[in-house]
Structures
1.
Amino acid sequence: MNPKSIRFTKRNFGLRCVGAGIFLCLWLAACTSASPAPVTTQSAVTAKPRLLRVMTHDSFAISAEVLAAFEAENNAKVQFVKSGDLGSALNKAILSRDNPLADVFYGVDNTFLSRALNEGIFEAYPSLMLAGIPDEFKLDVEARVLPVDYGDVCLNYDKAYFAQKKLPPPATLEDLIKPEYKSLLVVENPATSSPGLAFLLATIGNYGEPGYLEYWKKLALNDVLVVDGWETAYNSEFSGSAGKGLRPIVVSYSSSPAFEVIYSQTPVDQPPTAAIVAPKTCFRQIEFVGILKGNQNRALAEKWVDFMLSITFQEDMPLQMFVFPVNPQAQLAEVFTKFLAQPTETAQVSSQDIAARRETWLKAWTEVVLR
Amino acid sequence: MRSLAARLKSVAKHVAPMLRGDKGSRYWLLWAAPLAFLGLFYFYPLLKITAVSFGRGQSGVVAPFVEFLATPSLWKILGFTIWQAALSTGLTLLFGLPGAYLLARYHLPGRNLILAMTGVSFVLPTLVVAAAFNALLGPRGWVNLLLMQLFSLNQPPLHFVNTFGAILVAHVFYNTTIILRVVGDFWAHLDPRLGQAARVLGANGWQTLRRVTLPLLAPAIVSAALLVFIFDFTSFGVALVLGGPRFATLEVEIYNQTVSLFNLPLAAVLSLIQLGCTLTLMVMYTRLNARLARPLSLRPRAYTQHRLIGWRRQLLAWSYLAALLGLLTLPLVGLATRSLARIELLPTGIAFHPTLEYYRELTVNRFNALFYVSPLTSVAISLGYALTTVALALVLGLPAAWALTNRRQAASSQVFEPLLMLPLGTSAVTLGLGFIVALDRPPLDLRASPLLIPLAHTLVAFPFVVRSLTPALSSIKPRLRQAAALLGANPAQVFRFIDLPLIGRALFVAAIFAFTISLGEFGATALVARPEYPTLPVMIYRFISQPGAMNYGKALALSVILSMITAAGMLAIERFRIADIGEF
């Protein structure tokens, strides 16, 4: 190597180090400057915004302008802390209760409700907004958690398949064990998937306690396919979705057909799929919000809870999170009034039973279906 | 400011003699940063969550162990986890070693490109890999469609998801690149004269391989196999998504016990068992490696590599490489084609409509969602985390590797070496909760800090850096350093002019691993993610978990972008040369 080239590469070395350093610094600066609320000259006139920390799961979403309205109205800055799926997020809230990560926790549902209440992480807040909400959603009489939304886990089917085969889609859970529906259903593992658990609960709500195992035995004989989670079931195995799998019936949500219209690749006037909403075939998941014990701003936390029950938030929710308002005054967007079928009667299992029996049910189910 | 400067000066006054001074204090100084980092961000959270978990048990510390012993299904899971990891590692070695040989010993056109392409699979989140295999081997995958067309079948003949084979194939798909890089890079610098001498002395090709080449390669092979084994042993997503509900690994069961059943004491026992297995393996490895490692004269690549001569060899080499690239890139090609087409089921068959709509839609925020970021921003966020991880992992890993190899026989090295690898064998769920219970007081309240992400990534990347560097460092002949010292070089100069050039390649391998680990990491990122700063895998996950053709298409499109960024990043690091380092 000649001396000239050594000098050249050495200078390059310095330059590159400086370049990399600058990039890193800029990036770190961008990260840190974005996180705390900067006090602008405009808001410096008024008081500094109060910080509200909201802990939630992956699926939480909200429109930018809806949040901005809340922040402006209450002179607040809301920081969201997402902590994986609901189970993981709830575990974190429980383990950090001595020094909570947030003031409010949103997203605990009726399948996890008893765990949350037994651990005593929430403070009661009997909001006045509760008066306008139907009693069927208020699962905690002490109002430690307040209902915000619900979603129905229902069977979905591929309309084209059944039309082409001239076969009526199944109308009840009982139909699924009939020979004409053999090898058509794909479900999620209830141990690892939330809709999977909901569907297991639907069968328990229908057939009771040893009865559901008999039903699953027959379902297994009828070649039900069990996969790990909703993504695999819906995207890879279900024939009505973009993945075009082989199975025309899947466990999903009552809202899924509407989203097949909204997020269709080419504009369509009818969804390619439909939900089965016959009595007792669906299981309702209700999601709650609660103020965490040890919060740093009770007054603001109350405002947030009221806000989540208000019409503004309740009407924003369906298109953002695929769930439906518990506040009957909230209007649904046109796409839902057109394409949404909702069950009149869902299968019932109490959240106390779920907490007490979850492990037993899952073990028995695993023995019968997977072994 | 002045007091700070004064304080720094006094620190320097104490540290400088240590740097110059006797070997012992310098050795401990090298350990300081890596051990402090591991202590604070790994051992402390782990101990604390273990204590908290056992504290939640109603019937003492022993009861959960008894529960484990009394549950045969848990034993079965442990047995299966070890068995599938051993089998996967064996297959990965079988598949990867010929590739390592070819890439090391022969001057192949497009070598860097081949390596980069084989490395992409390493970073992809499991849900994307599942989608990629689905595009290739799924019920409507290309292979099944082709077979159905060829043999006029009504039903797809292959079933991939929910099989044991899927787990094995996916593990080979993920980890072959580790063998190619770790073994391949060491092999590329092995002095060919040793083998040539054996041939001159009458050994045939097979004998040379068995008696000369393999023993010399052993440290690198064992090192790589160990990494692969630990990855397969702690497999979560692959077992869950591709293996399906029948094939639970220990890591899946830990998640189950923690999240679904909230049985933290039992989850802690399972976590400890997983750690214990990793530690046992590491201790065995350390013992073995002390016997295997020997100083060698490493040679530059230009010296060791030659051209492939003869059509038979060429044919053999290229057909193997075609198979290698086939397995490692065809699923990605399947993914790419699906991101560019819409499938329609017709009564007569299947129609594909080409479209760029999914890529266009990535830049659209239809309902003005708060946490939406453009793909470009997400790429920048991912790259920022990845480069921070590279910097942190190298800064911490290099001194640790150096200390290890300088004093391999020291009792402390024998203790530290196995400990360094433990983060790889730790359950992500457990450690995630550990961060929550341990790093919760100022000044270290990092629970909601974006900094936690590069820290978590560094924990995974750090063992890779150490493992990539130690074979190269331990092969440096001490005489070289001694000669330099004799000629008046101080330790820093010895490092700069002897060690650094000799380990340059290994340093790039280490950087590439740290970079790719960070780019593709999903588990820890999802657990600590601040929703304002989503990485590419987090964005992919958001799309793939929503119904609607457009969301699925967007997830595929973003996965293709992640693959391309990864490949580009790896090629860039390969080309990035600091002075003469890495030319070697």
2.
Amino acid sequence: MTDRSAMPPLSCEEVHDLAPGFVLGALEPAEMAAVRAHLAGCPNAHAEFAELGGVVPYLADSLEPVAPPPALRGRIVAAVAAEAATRTADAPAMPLASAPASAPAPAPVGSLDAERARRRSPLLWVASIAAVLLILGLGAWNVSLRRDLDGAQAYGTAVDRVLALAGSPGGQAAILTPAQPGGPSGIAAVGSDGRVEIAMRGLAPTSQDEVYEAWVIGTDQKPVAIGSFVPDAAGFGTMATDRAPTGAGLTIALTREPTAGRTTPTPPVLSSGVALGSI
Amino acid sequence: MNPVSGPVPGRLASSADDADRLVLEHVAAGDHGEIKILYDRYGAMAFALANRITGDAALAEDVVQDAFVGAWRNAARYEQGRGSVKTWLMSIVHHRAIDATRRRRPTSELPEPEAGPTPGPLTEPDVWAEVAGRLDRDAVVGALGTLSDVQREALELGYFGGLTQQEIADRTGAPLGTVKSRMRLGLLSLRRALTGDGLEAAGEVTPSGEPGRPEGSGTG
């Protein structure tokens, strides 16, 4: 029964006997696996598992809550945002930040050691956003033309400003993903003081009075125009303001408008992302 | 199949758990920012649990981060019949914390990385849904107080200590069968104290245990 290396198939009685240890996670891995294997194929209900196990998670309630270090929240949000962005990069994005209904199979959990190594610096999550940008951008980013290179440099400078703002106290970052494949994408940062920096690429040329307008959508779902810009010849565009709404759960969205100064967006939303990372 | 997040029609967030489920649905639908809401609700409990199990605040941080990212990845796999979002989250934290603790012990085999301790095909009539909302720390501490010292010790060494039942037997000097019996009776008593549902427990006779035998004084 306690042989670590080999577990023969278990009888129902043996599984019943192991149930308390199983629900507490207090068995050897081989025993855990053998119990699982039995339950997966056993026609009997083995109600003792639910009966014994239902109470187990409540053991955690006996502990006095302990406030985690404040920076942990930002790291979790950034880790999720970074992984979400790489997923989005693999699949065409839906308008307004919705992932495909059938999410890809979860990646194996990275080792804790690797995780620890990555999180040593408080600003590392900004670096992880930058890494996501590389994943999002460089693969499809054609910089072979000189004008692209010039635009890319302006874009890169804007990205630096975005990252600086995102890394400021209370700063949040949003990765803007295109609503349609090939549409504009980029990154934005929202400061706690109302500043917003946006760097976009893949913008189609505008004509006459047309502009790209950036919107902040808060939890009330009302878009607020925060600034307009026109792209350069290579499709790069940047924008900055210090008068944007602040708060949590902001969505940054981009539309194309016939003129500057509109107060309601003209559909469709071309690119959008949710600001994350407030600490 | 509609991936657009938003309020689910016909569903009212009538309790904390319904609200949690709604948040988790949004997370599963791609609104990953909502993981913050779950963290704000349960981060302190998760950290307390991870800290208690690992005994190492830095490792506990890693565990909590790992657990919440894991919860985000697996949000679509959450099954409503298997318990509340909170207990689901705590199970993930617990599993990762035990995993992290055992990795530090060179002689121990590594647990399977993703399989949770909860058996797959089993669901329970929702006795917990009715009481979960009223369970607070005082209730659980009080319920633990109804256990004998050796029962409570067996549960705590297993759940918080990350020890296997054999290791608990070795440490306490009690026979393995006794440890199993203490765990079983302790869990049933705890369940009875928290839910008032003790009919099955009253007639519980374990094959290897010592039903009816009073557990003596604690193994100091």
